Amino acid sequence: MKFIDRSSELKELESSYALSKNRLFSTIIYGMRRVGKTELVKEFMKNKPSIYFFVYDNKTSKALLGEFEEELKRRKNIRGHESTSIRCSGACPNTMSP
Q1: Taking the C-alpha atoms of 88, 90, 93 and 94 in order, what is their torsion angle to the nearest 10 degrees?
Q2: Contact criterion met (CB below 8 Å) for 85 and 47
Q3: Tens of pLDDT along 29-78?
Q4: Beta strands in 1-98 (DSSP E)
Q5: Is 10 within 8 Å of 43 (Cβ atoms)?
Q6: What angle do CA 36, 28, 84 make, to 5 degrees?
Q7: Residue 39 class from Cβ within 10 Å (0-12 exposed, 13-18 middle, 19+ buried)?
Q8: Which pTM value belongs to this model?
Q9: DSSP single-letter state for residue 5
């Protein structure tokens, strides 16, 4: 899929990424379907240490946290939160509720 320039959105993501160099910082991307959220995230993540974690409505909080933990374990090349940028795309429910 061709990426169409979204410089203001990329600039906002760069600001979030700068914050993630000092502390763990999550960015949630949400919006209507089929407007390019996934492509925006993929374009931004190029050449950056990051984790792409897709969330959708039917996952339980327990399942989300379990999958997220497994993804972190798989990423042995990411050693600490100083260089880690975590991205969530899709409908992101409140994962703190039971």
Answers
A1: 20
A2: no
A3: 888 989 999 899 989 999 887 777 777 788 888 988 888 888 888 876 55
A4: 26-29, 50-55, 85-90
A5: yes
A6: 105
A7: middle
A8: 0.57
A9: P
